[in-house]
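User: Hi! I'm a student and our assignment asks us to look at how structure tokens line up with a sequence. Could you show me two examples?

Assistant: Happy to help. In each example below, the sequence comes first and the structure tokens follow. Example one:
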Amino acid sequence: LDLEKFFDRVNHDRLMMKISEKVKDKKVLLLIRKYLQSGVMENGLVKPTLEGAPQGGPLSPLLSNIVLDELDKELEKRGHRFVRY
């Protein structure tokens, strides 16, 4: 299974909900939300991002692991063997 376009499809609200279960500092949560919504530059113009995580950003691998943790647990519960890298 290839999670093609995974970073492009991360739901910001769902991710922020998962993060807020562990992180209680509102300033940190706001900073992460701003990071997610920072936008992308296309043809010299900044386009807002309503979903997805910036690819190549320093925080993106951590955020993707938070999102995919739920999938990992479900696959384990169903007895599937898998490797995620």
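Example two works the same way, sequence first and then tokens:
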Amino acid sequence: MALRPAPLWLPVMVAVSLLRGSCLGASSHSLKYFYTAVSEPSQGQPHFVTVGYVDDQIFSYYDSNSRREKPRVSWMEKLGKEDPQYWDRNTQRSHGDEEIFRENLETLRSRYNQSEGLHTWQKMYGCELRTDRSKGGFWQYGYEGRTFLTFDKETLTWVAPEPQAQITQRKWDTFPAMNQGYKAYLEEICIEWLEKYLSYGNETLLRTEPPVVTVSSRTEVEDGMETHVCRVHGFYPREIDASWMRDGEVWLQDTFHGFLAPNTDGTYHYWISIRVDPKERGRYRCRVEHDGLQDPLDLELEEPTDSKSNLSLIIIGCVVAALVVVGVIAGIAGFLVFFKKHQDGYKEASTSDKGSSSSDQGSNQTV
């Protein structure tokens, strides 16, 4: 049965998911690459886009219109001076990726027995370095906005969720040396480049800015219950813990979480709300923990004053956050780059931050 192309709203939902996912909790750093190829893009949009992220910051970009890998942050200029061939080398690899992505789109369209039209082939991979120095890594492919293949670096095999993907799974798993290359990249080379990028962008990526926390409230006309909103604004890094406490314990009932989103200055904002009985207002606190705070911050709930103005603030906050997410998507030519492709030459991997496998098996990247 043929798959339908992913709906156009999918990039927005994925963006919200990425902003909310892996944003709360212990501080960590990540290097991620996202690639997307579209068979019939809208007029003016590129057929192929790649984006590189350090943490949540875009540092490199390539598309099939410009056909040139370019820096997106000022701190990458230092790398360009130290390694003058860096951008040329990555541009050539992106050219190769673009051709392979075109071929794979055509192969998969035929495999799924689909007609011509809008189809997407995507890839995402990256690594994470956590505060305790433990490491994480992932490598995935997607077709039509759905998972196609996922690499299991513990078993050195590919996981395929459907028959069409199992054809590629069997093909790629016949090259164990290549799969070992994926694992080595995720656990070693990717981490080395992440640390290098953090050193280049340390003034931006390793800074700490404490949150500004405020609590506002309003009384519900219908039932007399109170809604309290705890806003956390202007903090960096993005990892933060914010929760409602009742009698000193975390309280999840009647709690609603907003999503964590970036501000225009590179900091973040987040909010949580709760409904309480006015008689029990004194039992609740908003607790915030962040690297920029020496100790957890606890704020008491106050009696509602102006419900209309508070409600407006809630609405404005949600709209601004949504616009920021959409703006990020528009900034990368209309698609969220959800998956990324690996390159040639595992033997050359130490000269590149991008994933590589054994050069004599590069043709295995076709599906």
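Here is something you could point out in your write-up. The two ends are 19 Å apart (CA to CA).
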